[in-house]
Amino acid sequence: MTTTFTPIQARQAPVNTEGLVPWIRSNLFGDIRTTIATLIFGGLMLWYIPQLIDWAIIRAYWFADSNACRADGVGACWGVVTEKYRLVIFGRYPFEEQWRPLVATLLMVLLLVASCTRTFWKPWLAVLWVLMLTGFFTLMGGGVMGLEEVETSRWGGLPLTIMLATISIALAFPLSLLVALGRRSNLPAIRSLCTVFVELVRGVPLISVLFMASFMFPLFMPVGVSIDVLVRVLVGITLFQTAYMAEVIRGGLQAIPKGQVEAAATLGLSYWQTQRKIVLPQALAMVVPGIMNSFIAIFKDTSLVTIVSLYELTGALKIALGSDSDWRPYFIEGYIFIALIYFAFCFSMSRYSTWVEKQVNKGKQR
């Protein structure tokens, strides 16, 4: 029997998928719809971006001279930032004492960065936080060690924003864990209480919570008893974000197969051992993006405290421009400056979330 060899048809060479050109070809010009969308958005960018650069950089004026900003042909007037940046950053804090919020904020930011680094995940980190918070409020409030006393109503700007966001996150996260576990509890009283709390808080906007904490809550206090407005606002933001974050964590808890809990019970693990060693590590790893989204929301929601006369970044800008008619027309540049500050912090939190997500999912990567 004679066998005839018939060669198969040659296949095309593998397409290179690495490098800039292959990435552009596959992501921007992969098919006809992608190509059309790329051309449309690319054309819009080529039209608007040069105009934006011309207004924001080329024709911009950078010095604190409002008269020069009104000249014909001048683009963005960044002189408003040059003139008002201290009032925007530090709010109504006394000018001569602004080194105190600067040092306090730097200490808090440095410890935040250290806390996000695995090298510093040691037991003594909690002690550092206690010392840092003590130093922060000592520097900001004064009244000791020869420091001039500054009431909390004069705190503002970036230090107030970072402080409210940091403490709210630190308090809301453990509370949301307890509320999420409570909503899945087998005890009807605990489950009902947590459900009522979540539904009640999520049913009202944060502005209402802040308004009630600032103006309504003091009406129910005994005569002569008063809680500082900063504390009331901090509690309001914490409880509000606790309700939202608890639902994010509950979604992760529901994704854990029931068989794992049953297996833990057969091994003799208690409820809290099961949650701590088996359920929560997996659940939290699944919802890292959602948790970080809540953290970012807390940071941005601090801008609402302006309604209770606590002037963070946005409120400080209103004070800076509202009292000076010469710079009031350049509020757009001021808001862009604030937006860049918010973006820097929120983008950093987002990148850190991506890193954490990769670390906790290493076991699933191949």
What is the ordering of alpha helices and beta strands? HHHHHHHHHHHHHEHH
Output the CATH homologous superfamily of the domain at 79-93 and 150-364. MetI-like
Distance between the termini: 49 Å
| Helicity range | 55-70%
**Individual helix count:** 15
CATH architecture of the domain at 79-93 and 150-364, by name, is Orthogonal Bundle
* Tally of DSSP β-strands: 1
- Please compute the radius of gyration using only Cα atoms: 27 Å
CATH topology of the domain at 79-93 and 150-364: MetI-like fold
Structural class: mainly alpha
* Unreliably modeled segments: none
Mean pLDDT score, rounded?
A: 87
CATH class of the domain at 79-93 and 150-364 equals Mainly Alpha
Estimate the strand proportion.
Answer: under 5%
Instruction: Let me know the largest β-sheet.
Output: none
Shape category: flat
Polypeptide structure, described:
It contains 15 helices and 1 strand; from the N terminus they run H-H-H-H-H-H-H-H-H-H-H-H-H-E-H-H. It is an all-alpha fold and 366 residues long. Helix 7 (157-183) crosses helix 10, helix 8 crosses helix 10 and helix 10 packs across helix 12. Helix content is 67%, strand content 1%. The chain is flat and about 110 Å long. The protein has a domain at 79-93 and 150-364: MetI-like fold (Orthogonal Bundle), CATH 1.10.3720.10. The model has no long low-confidence stretch (mean pLDDT 87). The chain has helices at 20-27, 32-58, 66-69, 79-90, 99-115, 124-141, 157-183, 188-202, 206-216, 229-254, 258-266, 271-286, 288-301, 313-322, 331-360; one strand at 311-312.
